[in-house]
Amino acid sequence: MNKKRIRQMDLALRRRLSDRPAADYFAPGDALLRALETEGYMQRFAGLFSGARRLVEALSGDAQVDVRIIPGISSASYLAARLARPWQDWRFASAHGVACDIVAEAERMTHEPDFKGYIHDVGGPTANFRHVACAKQLTDGACRNRHCIGSETCPNLNTSHDDYLKLLREIRSVKGVKKVFVRSGLRYDYVLADHNKAFVKELCQYHVSGQLKVAPEHVVKHVTDLMGKADVHAFLKFKDWFDEANRELGKKQYLVPYFMSSHPGCTLKDAVALAEFLRDMHMQPEQVQDFIPTPGSLSTAMYYTGLNPLTGEKVYVARRPEEKQMQRALMQYKNPANYDIVYKALCLAGRRDLIGYGPKCLMAPRRYQAGRRPDKAGRHAAPPRRQGRGPAKTRKFR
To answer: Average pLDDT of 357-370?
Structure first.
Protein backbone atom coordinates (compact mmCIF):
# COMPACT_ATOMS: atom_id res chain seq x y z
CA MET A 1 0.00 0.00 0.00
CA ASN A 2 1.67 3.23 -1.14
CA LYS A 3 1.57 6.62 0.54
CA LYS A 4 -0.86 8.03 -2.00
CA ARG A 5 -3.39 5.31 -1.22
CA ILE A 6 -3.01 5.94 2.52
CA ARG A 7 -3.70 9.64 2.03
CA GLN A 8 -6.78 8.80 -0.04
CA MET A 9 -8.05 6.55 2.75
CA ASP A 10 -7.46 9.30 5.31
CA LEU A 11 -9.43 11.83 3.24
CA ALA A 12 -12.24 9.31 2.77
CA LEU A 13 -12.40 8.74 6.51
CA ARG A 14 -12.54 12.47 7.18
CA ARG A 15 -15.41 12.92 4.71
CA ARG A 16 -17.32 10.03 6.27
CA LEU A 17 -16.92 11.45 9.76
CA SER A 18 -17.34 15.12 8.89
CA ASP A 19 -21.05 15.19 9.75
CA ARG A 20 -20.34 14.46 13.43
CA PRO A 21 -18.99 16.87 16.07
CA ALA A 22 -15.26 16.63 16.56
CA ALA A 23 -15.60 15.69 20.23
CA ASP A 24 -17.77 12.64 19.42
CA TYR A 25 -15.09 10.54 17.79
CA PHE A 26 -11.37 9.94 17.73
CA ALA A 27 -10.03 10.55 14.22
CA PRO A 28 -7.48 7.97 12.99
CA GLY A 29 -4.90 10.64 12.28
CA ASP A 30 -1.18 10.04 11.99
CA ALA A 31 -1.14 6.99 14.29
CA LEU A 32 -3.30 4.94 11.89
CA LEU A 33 -1.47 6.26 8.84
CA ARG A 34 1.95 5.34 10.22
CA ALA A 35 0.73 1.90 11.25
CA LEU A 36 -0.70 1.25 7.77
CA GLU A 37 2.39 2.67 6.10
CA THR A 38 4.74 0.52 8.17
CA GLU A 39 2.82 -2.74 7.98
CA GLY A 40 1.45 -2.40 4.47
CA TYR A 41 -1.89 -3.81 5.61
CA MET A 42 -3.94 -4.01 8.75
CA GLN A 43 -4.30 -7.49 10.24
CA ARG A 44 -6.39 -6.47 13.22
CA PHE A 45 -8.30 -3.35 13.99
CA ALA A 46 -9.99 -2.43 17.24
CA GLY A 47 -12.96 -0.09 17.27
CA LEU A 48 -12.21 3.55 17.97
CA PHE A 49 -15.13 4.02 20.34
CA SER A 50 -18.12 5.66 18.64
CA GLY A 51 -16.26 6.01 15.33
CA ALA A 52 -15.83 2.26 14.86
CA ARG A 53 -18.91 1.64 12.73
CA ARG A 54 -18.22 4.41 10.24
CA LEU A 55 -14.54 3.52 10.13
CA VAL A 56 -15.37 -0.07 9.23
CA GLU A 57 -17.70 1.15 6.48
CA ALA A 58 -14.96 3.33 5.04
CA LEU A 59 -12.34 0.57 5.09
CA SER A 60 -14.50 -2.38 4.05
CA GLY A 61 -14.44 -1.44 0.36
CA ASP A 62 -10.67 -1.81 0.11
CA ALA A 63 -9.55 -5.33 -0.80
CA GLN A 64 -6.06 -4.72 0.61
CA VAL A 65 -7.29 -4.06 4.13
CA ASP A 66 -8.50 -6.88 6.38
CA VAL A 67 -10.86 -5.32 8.92
CA ARG A 68 -11.81 -7.26 12.02
CA ILE A 69 -13.74 -6.06 15.05
CA ILE A 70 -12.32 -7.33 18.35
CA PRO A 71 -14.92 -6.75 21.08
CA GLY A 72 -13.67 -5.85 24.52
CA ILE A 73 -14.82 -7.18 27.87
CA SER A 74 -16.70 -4.58 29.88
CA SER A 75 -15.55 -3.87 33.42
CA ALA A 76 -19.01 -4.65 34.75
CA SER A 77 -19.23 -8.11 33.19
CA TYR A 78 -15.67 -8.89 34.28
CA LEU A 79 -16.43 -7.87 37.87
CA ALA A 80 -19.60 -9.94 37.88
CA ALA A 81 -17.67 -12.95 36.60
CA ARG A 82 -15.06 -12.60 39.33
CA LEU A 83 -17.78 -12.27 41.98
CA ALA A 84 -19.78 -15.12 40.44
CA ARG A 85 -22.91 -12.97 40.63
CA PRO A 86 -25.45 -11.94 37.96
CA TRP A 87 -25.41 -8.26 37.03
CA GLN A 88 -28.75 -7.87 35.23
CA ASP A 89 -30.26 -6.00 38.20
CA TRP A 90 -27.25 -3.75 38.88
CA ARG A 91 -27.61 0.00 38.52
CA PHE A 92 -24.78 1.91 36.87
CA ALA A 93 -23.94 5.57 37.26
CA SER A 94 -21.12 7.34 35.46
CA ALA A 95 -19.17 10.08 37.19
CA HIS A 96 -17.42 11.18 33.99
CA GLY A 97 -19.95 13.79 32.99
CA VAL A 98 -21.28 16.76 34.93
CA ALA A 99 -24.73 16.15 33.47
CA CYS A 100 -24.94 12.79 35.24
CA ASP A 101 -26.70 13.34 38.56
CA ILE A 102 -24.56 11.30 40.96
CA VAL A 103 -26.09 13.03 43.98
CA ALA A 104 -29.59 11.94 42.97
CA GLU A 105 -28.28 8.39 42.57
CA ALA A 106 -26.83 8.56 46.09
CA GLU A 107 -30.17 9.75 47.45
CA ARG A 108 -31.92 6.86 45.70
CA MET A 109 -29.48 4.42 47.27
CA THR A 110 -30.38 5.61 50.78
CA HIS A 111 -33.90 4.23 50.28
CA GLU A 112 -32.68 0.74 49.43
CA PRO A 113 -33.46 -1.72 52.26
CA ASP A 114 -29.92 -3.15 52.35
CA PHE A 115 -28.09 0.22 52.24
CA LYS A 116 -25.86 0.63 55.33
CA GLY A 117 -24.82 4.24 54.80
CA TYR A 118 -21.55 3.59 52.97
CA ILE A 119 -20.80 4.51 49.36
CA HIS A 120 -17.67 2.55 48.67
CA ASP A 121 -16.21 4.16 45.56
CA VAL A 122 -16.91 7.47 43.83
CA GLY A 123 -13.99 6.71 41.58
CA GLY A 124 -13.94 4.60 38.49
CA PRO A 125 -11.23 4.61 35.82
CA THR A 126 -10.50 8.35 36.26
CA ALA A 127 -12.04 9.61 39.47
CA ASN A 128 -10.94 13.24 39.37
CA PHE A 129 -11.48 13.90 35.65
CA ARG A 130 -14.85 15.65 35.67
CA HIS A 131 -14.75 18.08 32.78
CA VAL A 132 -13.25 18.60 29.34
CA ALA A 133 -9.51 19.00 29.23
CA CYS A 134 -9.58 22.55 27.85
CA ALA A 135 -11.82 25.03 26.02
CA LYS A 136 -10.35 24.01 22.67
CA GLN A 137 -11.61 20.45 23.08
CA LEU A 138 -15.22 21.66 22.96
CA THR A 139 -14.82 23.11 19.47
CA ASP A 140 -11.93 21.23 17.83
CA GLY A 141 -11.87 17.91 19.70
CA ALA A 142 -8.80 16.24 21.12
CA CYS A 143 -5.38 17.33 19.89
CA ARG A 144 -3.74 14.99 17.43
CA ASN A 145 -0.14 15.93 18.15
CA ARG A 146 -0.03 16.03 21.95
CA HIS A 147 -1.43 14.45 25.10
CA CYS A 148 -3.28 16.34 27.80
CA ILE A 149 -1.32 14.69 30.60
CA GLY A 150 1.10 11.85 31.09
CA SER A 151 4.84 12.08 30.52
CA GLU A 152 4.22 15.81 29.95
CA THR A 153 1.37 18.09 30.97
CA CYS A 154 -0.22 20.43 28.45
CA PRO A 155 -0.12 24.07 29.65
CA ASN A 156 -3.74 24.52 28.47
CA LEU A 157 -5.05 21.69 30.66
CA ASN A 158 -7.81 22.70 33.07
CA THR A 159 -6.61 21.11 36.32
CA SER A 160 -9.27 22.49 38.67
CA HIS A 161 -10.66 20.02 41.24
CA ASP A 162 -13.43 22.33 42.43
CA ASP A 163 -16.16 20.39 40.63
CA TYR A 164 -15.02 17.04 42.01
CA LEU A 165 -14.77 18.42 45.56
CA LYS A 166 -18.24 19.90 45.21
CA LEU A 167 -19.58 16.51 44.14
CA LEU A 168 -17.97 14.69 47.09
CA ARG A 169 -19.27 17.29 49.56
CA GLU A 170 -22.79 17.07 48.20
CA ILE A 171 -22.80 13.27 48.39
CA ARG A 172 -21.54 13.13 51.97
CA SER A 173 -24.16 15.71 52.98
CA VAL A 174 -27.01 13.47 51.75
CA LYS A 175 -29.16 12.30 54.66
CA GLY A 176 -28.47 8.66 55.41
CA VAL A 177 -24.96 8.63 53.95
CA LYS A 178 -22.32 7.97 56.62
CA LYS A 179 -19.15 7.67 54.56
CA VAL A 180 -18.18 8.32 50.94
CA PHE A 181 -14.97 6.65 49.80
CA VAL A 182 -12.67 7.08 46.82
CA ARG A 183 -10.79 3.82 46.55
CA SER A 184 -9.31 3.91 43.05
CA GLY A 185 -9.02 5.79 39.79
CA LEU A 186 -7.36 8.91 41.19
CA ARG A 187 -4.89 10.48 38.73
CA TYR A 188 -2.23 11.79 41.09
CA ASP A 189 -0.35 13.53 38.28
CA TYR A 190 -3.52 15.55 37.64
CA VAL A 191 -3.60 16.52 41.33
CA LEU A 192 0.05 17.57 41.18
CA ALA A 193 -0.63 19.68 38.09
CA ASP A 194 -3.28 21.52 40.12
CA HIS A 195 -0.78 22.16 42.98
CA ASN A 196 -3.66 21.37 45.31
CA LYS A 197 -2.53 20.06 48.70
CA ALA A 198 -5.86 21.13 50.19
CA PHE A 199 -7.62 18.60 47.96
CA VAL A 200 -5.30 15.83 49.15
CA LYS A 201 -5.94 16.73 52.80
CA GLU A 202 -9.73 16.75 52.39
CA LEU A 203 -9.51 13.49 50.48
CA CYS A 204 -7.55 11.87 53.31
CA GLN A 205 -9.85 13.31 55.95
CA TYR A 206 -13.18 12.17 54.55
CA HIS A 207 -12.78 9.82 51.60
CA VAL A 208 -9.98 7.33 52.28
CA SER A 209 -10.84 4.20 54.24
CA GLY A 210 -7.27 3.29 55.19
CA GLN A 211 -5.95 2.57 51.71
CA LEU A 212 -5.99 4.47 48.44
CA LYS A 213 -5.16 2.65 45.21
CA VAL A 214 -3.11 4.53 42.63
CA ALA A 215 -1.52 3.34 39.40
CA PRO A 216 2.09 4.36 38.73
CA GLU A 217 2.28 1.07 36.74
CA HIS A 218 6.06 1.21 36.35
CA VAL A 219 9.14 3.14 37.44
CA VAL A 220 11.40 3.10 34.36
CA LYS A 221 11.14 6.30 32.34
CA HIS A 222 10.95 4.89 28.81
CA VAL A 223 8.29 2.37 29.89
CA THR A 224 6.05 4.98 31.52
CA ASP A 225 6.45 7.17 28.43
CA LEU A 226 5.09 4.34 26.26
CA MET A 227 2.26 3.88 28.76
CA GLY A 228 1.41 7.58 28.63
CA LYS A 229 1.94 7.81 32.38
CA ALA A 230 3.84 10.20 34.60
CA ASP A 231 7.28 9.09 35.75
CA VAL A 232 8.08 7.69 39.18
CA HIS A 233 9.05 11.11 40.57
CA ALA A 234 5.41 12.22 40.31
CA PHE A 235 4.33 9.17 42.31
CA LEU A 236 6.93 9.85 45.02
CA LYS A 237 5.89 13.50 45.23
CA PHE A 238 2.23 12.57 45.61
CA LYS A 239 3.18 10.02 48.24
CA ASP A 240 4.93 12.78 50.20
CA TRP A 241 1.76 14.92 50.00
CA PHE A 242 -0.39 11.97 51.04
CA ASP A 243 1.83 11.08 54.02
CA GLU A 244 2.06 14.73 55.09
CA ALA A 245 -1.73 15.12 55.06
CA ASN A 246 -2.21 11.97 57.14
CA ARG A 247 0.38 13.07 59.69
CA GLU A 248 -1.47 16.37 60.14
CA LEU A 249 -4.76 14.47 60.53
CA GLY A 250 -3.28 11.90 62.90
CA LYS A 251 -4.30 9.03 60.63
CA LYS A 252 -2.47 5.93 59.49
CA GLN A 253 -3.43 5.49 55.86
CA TYR A 254 -1.47 4.02 53.01
CA LEU A 255 -1.10 4.17 49.26
CA VAL A 256 -1.50 0.88 47.42
CA PRO A 257 0.38 1.19 44.11
CA TYR A 258 -0.62 -0.82 41.07
CA PHE A 259 2.19 -2.10 38.87
CA MET A 260 2.16 -3.94 35.57
CA SER A 261 4.60 -6.43 34.09
CA SER A 262 5.44 -7.24 30.46
CA HIS A 263 4.08 -3.99 29.01
CA PRO A 264 5.49 -3.29 25.53
CA GLY A 265 8.90 -1.68 26.00
CA CYS A 266 9.58 -3.39 29.32
CA THR A 267 12.64 -5.65 29.25
CA LEU A 268 13.86 -8.08 31.88
CA LYS A 269 16.32 -5.47 33.16
CA ASP A 270 13.45 -2.99 33.52
CA ALA A 271 11.54 -5.59 35.55
CA VAL A 272 14.58 -5.97 37.82
CA ALA A 273 14.67 -2.17 38.27
CA LEU A 274 11.01 -2.30 39.35
CA ALA A 275 11.84 -5.05 41.85
CA GLU A 276 14.64 -2.88 43.28
CA PHE A 277 12.20 0.02 43.64
CA LEU A 278 9.77 -2.20 45.57
CA ARG A 279 12.66 -3.30 47.79
CA ASP A 280 13.72 0.28 48.55
CA MET A 281 10.11 1.34 49.25
CA HIS A 282 9.48 -1.72 51.44
CA MET A 283 6.49 -2.67 49.32
CA GLN A 284 5.25 -6.22 48.87
CA PRO A 285 2.40 -6.28 46.35
CA GLU A 286 -0.05 -9.08 47.01
CA GLN A 287 -1.59 -8.83 43.55
CA VAL A 288 0.22 -7.98 40.32
CA GLN A 289 -1.04 -7.53 36.79
CA ASP A 290 0.49 -8.91 33.62
CA PHE A 291 -0.16 -6.87 30.48
CA ILE A 292 -3.26 -7.98 28.58
CA PRO A 293 -3.87 -6.53 25.09
CA THR A 294 -7.22 -4.73 25.01
CA PRO A 295 -8.88 -3.37 21.86
CA GLY A 296 -8.54 0.30 21.00
CA SER A 297 -5.32 1.13 22.86
CA LEU A 298 -1.88 2.19 21.68
CA SER A 299 -0.32 -0.44 23.92
CA THR A 300 -2.18 -3.17 22.04
CA ALA A 301 -0.95 -1.77 18.73
CA MET A 302 2.61 -1.90 20.09
CA TYR A 303 2.09 -5.47 21.30
CA TYR A 304 0.93 -6.78 17.93
CA THR A 305 3.22 -4.77 15.64
CA GLY A 306 6.32 -4.27 17.78
CA LEU A 307 6.25 -0.60 16.78
CA ASN A 308 5.27 2.65 18.43
CA PRO A 309 2.41 3.92 16.20
CA LEU A 310 3.18 7.52 17.12
CA THR A 311 6.84 7.47 16.11
CA GLY A 312 7.37 4.31 14.05
CA GLU A 313 10.22 3.23 16.35
CA LYS A 314 10.67 -0.41 17.28
CA VAL A 315 9.40 -1.45 20.71
CA TYR A 316 10.57 -4.52 22.59
CA VAL A 317 7.72 -6.89 23.44
CA ALA A 318 7.99 -9.78 25.92
CA ARG A 319 6.09 -12.58 24.18
CA ARG A 320 7.53 -15.81 25.58
CA PRO A 321 5.44 -17.17 28.47
CA GLU A 322 8.59 -17.84 30.49
CA GLU A 323 9.82 -14.26 30.22
CA LYS A 324 6.38 -12.90 31.11
CA GLN A 325 6.39 -15.20 34.13
CA MET A 326 9.82 -13.87 35.14
CA GLN A 327 8.73 -10.25 34.95
CA ARG A 328 5.63 -11.02 36.97
CA ALA A 329 7.53 -13.02 39.60
CA LEU A 330 10.13 -10.28 40.09
CA MET A 331 7.43 -8.02 41.56
CA GLN A 332 6.80 -10.72 44.19
CA TYR A 333 10.37 -11.78 44.69
CA LYS A 334 9.79 -12.47 48.39
CA ASN A 335 7.25 -15.17 47.65
CA PRO A 336 9.02 -18.53 48.27
CA ALA A 337 7.08 -20.09 45.39
CA ASN A 338 8.85 -17.67 43.00
CA TYR A 339 12.40 -18.45 44.17
CA ASP A 340 13.53 -20.50 41.17
CA ILE A 341 12.03 -18.26 38.49
CA VAL A 342 13.36 -15.08 40.17
CA TYR A 343 16.81 -16.67 40.55
CA LYS A 344 16.85 -17.51 36.86
CA ALA A 345 15.63 -14.03 35.89
CA LEU A 346 18.41 -12.33 37.86
CA CYS A 347 21.01 -14.60 36.28
CA LEU A 348 19.74 -13.94 32.75
CA ALA A 349 19.63 -10.19 33.42
CA GLY A 350 23.24 -10.23 34.61
CA ARG A 351 22.28 -9.17 38.13
CA ARG A 352 23.84 -11.88 40.29
CA ASP A 353 24.87 -9.05 42.61
CA LEU A 354 21.27 -9.08 43.87
CA ILE A 355 21.66 -12.66 45.10
CA GLY A 356 23.28 -12.73 48.52
CA TYR A 357 22.91 -11.61 52.10
CA GLY A 358 23.51 -7.87 51.73
CA PRO A 359 20.88 -5.20 52.43
CA LYS A 360 20.41 -4.56 48.70
CA CYS A 361 20.01 -8.20 47.72
CA LEU A 362 16.62 -9.45 46.58
CA MET A 363 17.19 -13.05 47.63
CA ALA A 364 19.59 -15.26 49.51
CA PRO A 365 21.55 -17.95 47.65
CA ARG A 366 20.22 -21.45 47.94
CA ARG A 367 22.46 -23.90 49.71
CA TYR A 368 24.06 -26.46 47.45
CA GLN A 369 26.73 -29.10 47.73
CA ALA A 370 30.34 -28.20 47.14
CA GLY A 371 31.31 -28.69 43.53
CA ARG A 372 27.70 -28.42 42.28
CA ARG A 373 27.26 -24.76 41.56
CA PRO A 374 24.39 -23.46 39.43
CA ASP A 375 24.94 -23.03 35.71
CA LYS A 376 24.72 -19.74 33.84
CA ALA A 377 20.93 -19.95 33.59
CA GLY A 378 20.65 -20.35 37.36
CA ARG A 379 19.70 -24.04 37.33
CA HIS A 380 20.96 -26.10 40.23
CA ALA A 381 22.25 -29.56 39.59
CA ALA A 382 20.40 -32.21 41.56
CA PRO A 383 22.47 -33.68 44.42
CA PRO A 384 23.44 -37.34 44.00
CA ARG A 385 21.13 -39.83 45.63
CA ARG A 386 22.69 -42.02 48.30
CA GLN A 387 22.21 -45.72 47.84
CA GLY A 388 20.56 -47.75 50.57
CA ARG A 389 18.17 -46.86 53.32
CA GLY A 390 18.35 -45.27 56.72
CA PRO A 391 20.38 -42.33 57.93
CA ALA A 392 23.93 -41.88 56.78
CA LYS A 393 26.51 -43.31 59.16
CA THR A 394 29.33 -41.12 60.35
CA ARG A 395 32.64 -42.37 61.57
CA LYS A 396 34.05 -40.81 64.69
CA PHE A 397 37.76 -40.14 65.07
CA ARG A 398 39.52 -39.55 68.34
So the answer is: 80
